[in-house]
Amino acid sequence: MKLFQHEKKIKMETASPPSTIVATSLELKTRRAQFQTQASTLDTRKRHAVCVRRAYKKYGTKSNPNVILDGLNMTVPKGSIYGLLGASGCGKTTLLSCIVGRRRLNAGEIWVLGGKPGSKGSGVPGPRVGYMPQEIALYGEFSIRETFIYFGWCAGMTTEQVDDKLEFLVKLLQLPPENRFVKNLSGGQQRRVSFAAALLADPELLILDEPTVGVDPVLRQSIWDHLVHVTKDDNKTIIITTHYIEETRQASIIGLMRGGKFLAEESPTRLMEMHNVDTLEDVFLKLSKRQNMGLRRRSSILSSVTGVPPEVDADDEMSGEFGDNVSVSSRRRSIAVNDGNVPELPPEEKGTSKFKMIDPKHMKALVWKNFLWMWRNVGIMMFIIGLPVVQITLFCLSIGKDPTGLNIAIVNHELNNSMEPCVPSVGCDWHRLSCRFLSHLEKKQLVFRSYDNEADARNAVKRGWAWAAITFPANYSESLTARIEEGKDVDDWNIDNSNMLITMDSSNQQIGLLLQRDLYGSYRDFATDVTVSCNYSRKLTNIPVDFKTPIYGPLEPNFTDFAAPGVILTIIFFLSVALTSGAMLLERNEGLLERSLVSGLTGTEILFGQVITQFVVMIGQTVMVLIVSFAVFKITCEGDIGWISVLTILTGLCGMSFGFVVACVCENETSATYMAMGSFLPIVMLCGIIWPIEGMHYILRYISFVLPLTKSTESMRSMLARGWPISNASVYNGFISTLIWICAFMTLAILLIKFKKG
Fold it and tell me: Which in 130, 178, 624, 672 has the greatest CB count within 10 A?
């Protein structure tokens, strides 16, 4: 009526000059076209649930692309069953993934229930869409009822609503008892449970990827009867893929897909009539042969199949063969379209829901699901919690202790031969001082092997039978006595013969340094023992350097106290990486992550759900590690245990965040393992965990400052060894650095899980 009123008004206002009349006529045609376009758009919005236009999707490189969808057009009316048929690898699953928003097209557009997937007006993701992926995508450790409760809570249902729907679906799909675990079901039963989970929230649009595979024919017919019922009575829309072509006779429309294009898009009955065959398989076969022959024109294909020239309107009644068009039956649509005049997508509807970064109902479902999974895998969780304790125990028992049982080759010329016992003198007796020194050295738990000459002793060191060879001259005691008594007047001969000769194997730096320390310490004790026995001053034999009590640490520092802070943080950090990345990859590779995202959960909610549950595990790990470290093995702890615990927990949280990044970047567990191991060695070597940063190359020092464990290790060491409070810069810088890394990793993980799509 508005269009005719507008025409009448224009006619009344126009003058008689021809130029004016022509201009008015053009304006009238333009307005009429605009009104028709608007009416078509509104009609499309009312009648269609899914529209795909010029979809193009490829994988691989530019030089060697693998085209999956090639200019595909698809229209799914509301209240219909759309059967998507095609061989494996033709692009069906990819097309469905693009419709639900889990993959992106390289070119083309998709409109679903009011807008593009992911927009506010669209029903994707959300409970308006029920999605059954090709994978089972269920938690094997959950019972059927628990599975329904999780997906029901994700869709905003109450437990009572889930139980009511569960009773109906168990009868419809002939499911086992609701308390049976999914992992104990057969493959066909698992697919039926997955199918039921898609039906649970009574969605407007059902997208089912081969739901009837492995299902009994009688039950398959029952499923199809139910699908037909919900489309007719409840105005639901269903897109279903299947290998059983003939079962789609009950579908309203079928799309025959091959090589990323549609061979046809039409009702099953109409297709068989057009091609004069009795089965849909024959239709598919003939159209596939014609595609292989390269007959592109629809009229020539129809003629070659039917054997008769096409009717005048046969071109319009064909159904988008080979992707060159998308036409519809004249019985259900009045126009046929091709690539040149494919209707544009309708405008997006305004979203009514308010934006929520985190939905409490979703978080309830995720946290419940994660804790239930842990409870069902209690053995694995006990191992995960106990593993840090085993690691810190092994560290404390194996790292930092003084080596014992080292073999020392002894050549003592003060004795008649190597078999003679070396009896040390006592009191102020200056004979056989070599034996007296060896008695002090023996207290260091060294093993002496006597040899007759220096050549044999050196050979023992060369062959690895001993770590050092010590030779005492024949007149060692007399020369040492003369050296002490004569002082500055002693001759060179006595000086040379008062020295013990030591040849060492210094290939192992730690053993070499510790052995030197033992030799120096034993000689100091030996000299003090002799001088005190002879009533000399104890200070006489000390070197003129007096080491006072250290401000921080013991007089003889040990490597355990130095390495413990970094080792504790490294254990917590990388176990958190392994735990979170493993959990995320498990869900993603089994299709659980994709299904949860399509149901309306956001990547942020999934990450925070994992953070909450893994955080509880990490607290248990931290408490047990700190108890074993400080209460059992007595690692030096001079600082506030509260702040030490907080820093350890924050480091674990940082590892969890890095684990999320690893899971989002990597495609499988193997690549995730490589990435985690590749990051482990640089962090351990460059963060000052096993060697001071001051000993590194100056370029590596700058690199180490931006690694996640450098500042936290320095902070932990300052609290443990020095007892510094949180107000000290060296301490709080570790906390600040860790918080920055947590924010950076979490932000990156959220962006990756949101935007990284195939």
Answer: 130
Percentage of the chain lying above the pLDDT 70 cut: 85
Which one-letter DSSP state was computed for residue 475?
T
Rounded to 5 degrees, what angle do the CA atoms 539, 501, 439 make? 55
Q: How far is CA 454 from the centre of its chain?
A: 62
Tally of CB atoms within 10 A around 378:
9
Phi, psi values for residue 510, rounded to 5°: -65, -45
DSSP 101: T
d(CA 170, CA 399): 59
Distance CA 238, CA 254 (A): 11
Q: What's the pLDDT score for residue 297?
A: 43
Q: From CA 206, how far away is CA 196, in angstroms rounded?
A: 11
Can you tell me the distance from the alpha carbon of 506 to that of 501, in angstroms, rounded to the nearest whole number?
15
Tell me what pLDDT residue 342 has: 59
Return the axis-axis angle of helices 433-441 and 476-486, rounded to nearest 10°. 100
Residues 752-756: what's their mean pLDDT?
Answer: 79
Residue 313 binned pLDDT confidence (cut-offs 50, 70, 90): very low
pLDDT for the residue numbered 213:
78
- Displacement of CA 598 from its chain's centroid (Å): 19
322: its two tokens: 């080979």
User: pLDDT by residue (tens digit) across 178-203?
Assistant: 999 999 998 888 988 999 999 999 99
656-666 pLDDT per residue, tens: 999 999 998 98
Pick from 316, 300, 318: which is nearest to 308 by CA? 300
Mean pLDDT of the chain: 83
* pLDDT reported for residue 570: 94
Closest to 301 in 3D by CA, of 337, 275, 323, 266: 275
Q: Is the pTM of this model over 0.90?
A: no
Chain centroid, CA 567 distance in Å: 23
380 pLDDT more than 90: no
DSSP category for residue 175: -
240 contacts: CB under 8 Å, gap ≥ 6: 81, 82, 83, 84, 206, 208, 211, 227, 248, 251
Run of H or E including 504:
strand 501-504
Q: Residue 132 pairs with which residues in a beta bridge?
A: 208
- State how far the alpha carbon of 578 is from the alpha carbons of 204, 478, 674, in Å: 39, 66, 11
| Secondary structure (DSSP) of 194-229 | HHHHHHTT--SEEEEESTTTT--HHHHHHHHHHHHH
Segments in 322-377 forming alpha helices (H): 360-376
Handedness of CA 141, 144, 149, 152 (dihedral sign): positive
Residue-wise pLDDT tens digits, 455-490? 999 999 999 999 999 999 999 999 998 988 888 888
Number of residues that this document lists for the chain: 758
Express each pLDDT in 318-342 by its tens digit: 333 333 433 333 333 333 334 445 5
Tell the residue number behind the tokens 């799309």, with chain if given.
255
Nearest CA among 245, 294, 296 for reference residue 271:
245
DSSP state of 185: S
Position of tokens 């033992």?
518
- Mapped onto helix, strand or coil, the DSSP state of residue 649 is helix
Q: Taking a C-beta distance cutoff of 8 angstroms, is the pair 95, 84 a contact?
A: yes
Beta strands in 317-450 (DSSP E): 325-327, 336-338, 407-412, 447-450
| Contact criterion met (CB below 8 Å) for 226 and 174 | no
Cα dihedral 347, 348, 349, 350 in deg (nearest 10): -120
For residue 20, is pLDDT > 50?
no
**Amino acid (one-letter) located at 213:** V
Q: Bridge-partner residues for 326, per DSSP?
A: 337
Q: List residues bridging with 81 in a β-sheet.
A: 238
